[in-house]
Amino acid sequence: MTAQPSDALVFFGATGDLAFKQIFPALQALVAREHLSVPIIGVAKADWNLERLRQRARESIQAHGQDDPASLERLCQLLRYVDGDYRDPKTFALVREALGKAQRPLHYLAIPPSMFGTVVEGLSKSSCLQEARVVVEKPFGRDLASARALNATLLRHLPESSIFRIDHFLGKEPVQNLLFFRFANVFLEPIWNRQHVRSVQVTLAESFGIKGRGAFYDEVGAIRDVLQNHLLQIVALLAMDAPFCSSAEALRDEKARIFKAMRSLTSDSVVRGQFRGYRQVPGVSPTSQVETFAAVRLFIDSWRWADVPFYIRAGKCLPTDATEVFVELNHPPRPIFEEPAQASPNFVRFRLGPDVRISLGARAKKPGSTMEGEDVDLVASELPEVVVKPYERLLGDAMRGDVSLFARQESVEEAWRVVDPILDDGSQVYEYEPGTWGPSEADVLAPQGSWRTVLRDSGGVSVVRDSRDEHPRSREGHEEGSPRVKPARR
Fold it and tell me: Where along this sequence does the record place binding of substrate (predicted)?
């Protein structure tokens, strides 16, 4: 049966930073595409009124450069506002009144997780949850025990099918393309297993620091902030088997199986780092041991991936902003040509940002009279600029009742189970210089002591460097130490 669309949108935290940066631009884009025409009720405790909320929406849209006065005005006309404390039953009575004849509202909780239970209980007591859906923001808990408790609270008032645990990373076009590329084509499948894959590396690099979020980040750290959710979700998309059909539950079933097969991390499979100067950031403890960099080695105990290491790392104040997957294949079983010992193996690279592409790494004959080889990049796909942004896509899906890109209870809890042993294990935090690739101690986790990293030179050229290489590998030009790039024929 096709799910009925929600007939109202209520978002708690309407005056907050997330609403300004993400929600208002997403709502305006949905209105502009004529995908949203129902009442939008903002709820917060800020002593605001409706006109102040509309002004906030205009400021947000202007700040994000979405120049479409007509759709902005339509958005403002859809807005309603309820000012009240989330602990006060009167607030929820006002929400029920503002909903009017709406019977299938979507409630979006853009608030701290500590308030999820309070708000859901208030909605339930005021009869606002009948046939309703609820979207909850991350972080969904801070460890396995709190995630289980939070799930139990939500499930007391809502069925699993009505709970939408949002991870904006899953709404990104390049991440969805990773799934599509794998299962819309057949050529990867024969090699996508332990017989042919030597290792997998996943990197999420950010060149910036904490950006004024010192107090928040010092409670979270890199593992809770991005590894437990964003990066394990990418691993699941890489490692899962094909769903039997395109339905949301078939997709989520396969992801859940992979999460269950992931081996829990141990202290000898993680290296933590903290960039020099982090403790001087306002809001951060002067003795903080919170990691701003984390590297882990993960194994998946399935027939397809047994004994294949997945190397995952994320960090602040690294040399660039980039998200990349690097799947290294095995060397040929025996050499036919006299190749140097350091000759690169074949690989598949998924560049997920900031530029987006899929490429294959191969060895080709170097021009000349001798049978010498060189590395080449075969660019299989270069994706256009993203048209639909993550929050627009995810809010639109939630309004339609499409759960495909939202995390299910068991997957969330299994992801926490994977990282739970290393969250507060007291392991050493190594200092690293801003602008470097984290502490050198992380190299011991990587294959043969080296990571594949993504750099960007001053001209914006994408560069791949092995941590042991002396020369960058540029995809433009053919300089000494660099492979030629051979784009795929179109």
Answer: 168, 172, 206, 225, 316
**SS3 of 361, please?**
strand
The 10s digit of each residue's pLDDT in 132-142 is: 999 998 878 89
Q: Angle between the 232-239 and 173-183 helix axes, to the nearest 10 degrees? A: 20
For the chain, the straight-line distance linking the first and the last C-alpha, in angstroms and rounded, comes to 40
Catalytic residue among 230, 331, 471, 478: 230
Which residues are bridge partners to 81 per DSSP?
42
Give residue-wise pLDDT tens across range 92-129. 999 999 999 999 999 999 998 889 999 999 999 999 99
Q: Is the bond preceding residue 69 a cis peptide, omega within 30 degrees?
A: no
- 138 annotated to a ligand binding site: yes
Alpha helix ranges (H) inside 141-247: 144-157, 173-183, 214-222, 232-239
Q: Is 230 a catalytic residue?
A: yes
User: Are the CB atoms for 118 and 87 separated by under 8 Å?
Assistant: yes
Residues 175, 162: Cα–Cα separation, whole Å:
24
The answer to the question of whether 260 is labelled as a binding residue is no
Domains and CATH numbers, the chain: 8-137 (3.40.50.720), 170-389+408-449 (3.30.360.10)
Q: What is the pTM of this model?
A: 0.89
